[in-house]
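Second attempt. The first submission of DUF2620 domain-containing protein had a stray character pasted in from the spreadsheet, which I only caught after the job came back as garbage. Lesson logged: always re-copy from the clean sequence file. Corrected sequence (119 aa) follows.
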Amino acid sequence: MAKILTGGVGKTEVAEAVRRLGLDGVEVTVSGDMDAALLLRDGRADYYLGTCHTGAGASLGVLVGLLGQPACHTFGRGVPSADEVEALLAEGKRVFGFALDRAEAVAPLVARAISVRAE
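This time the job returned cleanly.
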């Protein structure tokens, strides 16, 4: 079971986008960034999907500060390929940020890749 936390300005929308997928082995919880960082650090959650208006930093600021840059990646306003997401997960990235207006494309893509890894 992979536990995904969502945060940022679109945290509820991202959680709903992931829940609509009905993925086996994935649990989604809406969270604040500080709580998420602590849950991730303590091993009580596995991944974080954060949104802001540009995807350029505010979506992950607290998490980068507390977990370190190596655990984090921002897609900004871009939409990654499935191969790019898989490569980032393989590198150990657990925290992903993206622009709110890309949430419907990015959140399901990342969640599906996480689901495959959770099997």
